[in-house]
Amino acid sequence: MRVLILHSRYLSGPASGENRVLEDEIGLLRRGGHEVDVWAPEPENVHGLKLLKAGAGAIWSGTAAERVRALIRRNGVQIVHCHNLFPTLSPAVLRAASDEGCAVVMTLHNYRLMCLPSNFLRDGRVCEDCLGHVPWRGVKYKCYRDSTLGSAVMASSISLHRAAGTWDRVTLFLPVSRFLMDKHVEGGMSPGRFKVKHNFAWPAERREGPGDYFIHIGRMAYEKGGHVLIEAWRRSEPGRLLIVGGGPEAEEMNASGPPSVEFRGTVPGHEVPALIRGARAVLLPSLWYEGAPRTILEAYAVGVPVLASRIGALPEVVEEGASGLLLEPGDPDAWAEGAERLGDDNESVRLGNGGYRLWERLYRPEVALANLEEAYEDALARL
């Protein structure tokens, strides 16, 4: 198949899970023998009049739409696969691809079509005020980057294209989890327009033994729950804990952590697999509706179990007692108890083996390629 992949890159680069998914799927499709064209522009940091122009482009970018038309015509594209559209592409590219007769598929990594910041999160807590509604409440609360203007632009784009039927131009939506699909259906979309497509992880060298430490990898922000781990380790100290990543709460967490907690800060992406492979368990104490964290799949690929909050899509990916443990969000005692359970070498090895079997069954590249090809064939059949 001839595929055109569209993605407005995040400025965080390789730290962005969506940017990494994009690169992985490009490689996967090319390995599978498909012809893949990519347009993935990166936004500029702009101010003043340029910011207003960029805002208008996020609502409707005629320039992006025309470029997509040209790429389709020049390369004989059959499938247009969209990821993030904001701010450089805009939903106008969906109409352009549909008008050219292509099957249009769109991966749903988050809740952007219903929520301005895309995560159903406000002031560090789950918020569903805009679910099933026009998202103007998000403007009131400056939900998009704490900006009234930015929130108004995003709300205008979502609402305009909803009213204009632009989202109906998508042949098939590919949510990365069933939970994410269910939220969109709850917001008013038809379940027949979705096909769940999980992320995947590349094979890697497996862990030997039970691991030496616990590890939490992610942005140091309230909703990620790192502070819950700090409190759990204050009460119990079930073993050595590495915290990898940066963010707004990094300094405060670093100052409050007990001696058994080591803060590594942001590390190069190529160092992360070895850190995961050496771990007793990967910890995800999230307080929000996580979509499908790649860290879990990367842990499974090397035979490392996962302790995760019982929230969002995490219970879909972590099989309780088989590949890891599900724990109460925000409860330090529950997290201390869960980590103490993984302090048993045999339990860590058993759950790690279960995670590896789950990766073999559901999250290998071969499985992901078959699922993606099946989704493309489904989309073409709907034309």
Provide the number of structural domains: 2
> Helix-strand pattern, N to C?
EHEHHEHEEEHHEHEHEHEHEHEHEHHH
Largest sheet: 6 strands, parallel
Number of strands: 13
Q: What is the straight-line distance between the termini?
A: 15 Å
Q: Which topology of the largest domain does CATH recognise?
A: Rossmann fold
Please report the first level of CATH classification, the CATH class of the largest domain.
Answer: Alpha Beta
The proportion of strand residues reads 5-15%
Question: Which features would summarize this protein structure in a list?
Answer:
383 residues; Rossmann fold; 2 domains; six-stranded parallel sheet; five-stranded parallel sheet; 13 strands; 42% helix; globular
Structure overview:
This protein has two domains: 2-200 and 365-381, 3-Layer(aba) Sandwich (Rossmann fold); 213-363, 3-Layer(aba) Sandwich (Rossmann fold), CATH 3.40.50. Helix content is 42%, strand content 15%. It contains 15 helices and 13 strands. The protein has helices spanning 17-31, 48-59, 62-75, 92-99, 137-140, 148-164, 178-186, 226-235, 250-256, 272-277, 294-301, 314-317, 332-341, 345-363, 365-381; strands at residues 2-6, 35-39, 79-82, 103-108, 121-122, 125-126, 172-175, 213-217, 241-244, 261-265, 279-284, 306-309, 324-327. The strands form three sheets. It has a six-stranded parallel β-sheet with strand order 10-9-8-11-12-13, with helices on both faces. Helix 3 (62-75) packs parallel to helix 4 and helix 8 (226-235) crosses helix 13. Mean pLDDT is 93; it is low at 46-52.
Give me the secondary-structure topology:
Layout: E1 2-6, H1 17-31, E2 35-39, H2 48-59, H3 62-75, E3 79-82, H4 92-99, E4 103-108, E5 121-122, E6 125-126, H5 137-140, H6 148-164, E7 172-175, H7 178-186, E8 213-217, H8 226-235, E9 241-244, H9 250-256, E10 261-265, H10 272-277, E11 279-284, H11 294-301, E12 306-309, H12 314-317, E13 324-327, H13 332-341, H14 345-363, H15 365-381
Parallel strand pairs: 1-2, 1-3, 3-4, 4-7, 8-9, 8-11, 9-10, 11-12, 12-13
Antiparallel strand pairs: 5-6
